[in-house]
Amino acid sequence: MRNITYGMLAAIAVLALMEAMTRVAASFDESVRKAVHFAASPALTAFFKSETWLGSWIVLLPVCIVAALWQKRIILMLAAYAGAAALTEAAKVIVQRPRPLPYFNVSPETWSFPSGHSLESAAVYWTLAAVIAASASLPGRRVVVYSLAVLPVITGLSRIYLGMHYPTDVIAGWAAGGCWSAGMVRALAAGSVRRVGCKNAPDLDIAFVKRVDDAER
Questions:
Q1: 99 neighbors 143 (Cβ within 8 angstroms)
Q2: Considering the entire predicted model, what is its pTM?
Q3: CATH number of this structure's domain 2-216
């Protein structure tokens, strides 16, 4: 549980730091928004309007459930999503940053900071990528892991492109989601989160621990 606590505290600290930075980053936010909007095209608009749904709970929750049943990581995947959602909602209520003017859609009625799509997709997809990276028997593992790693980045860019968030909202989401994901992964590697439905659960995490430890050296 210590690693999970550290991950949550790190995510909260990152959000607090990024919230302070938003007060002096107005020119940065507007410059990036204008640059991204200048590059807009019908093809990009269609792509980002479709891709942005990958960061919605409508997609993330089923992904968590399917991945949890497939990899027998029910507690891990549901906790990854639930913790990220809690972080998002708490930060939005506390900070209450108004949304920017959207470019293509009607802006949601929720607050802007942080980007929930970015934070929650980072927490879910990066945690799942770590779990799959430890699955030595999975064919094409690297392709799947790299694809999952890129999804939150594209999702965050879609929120900027569509004008739903300021760039600092998205960066804060990536950073906080990454911290929370790291805490979950470390908890798994430490044995705090076990597979569900496996009699020899402790032995099943040996490969995962070795891969995580090797990656940190």
A1: no
A2: 0.84
A3: 1.20.144
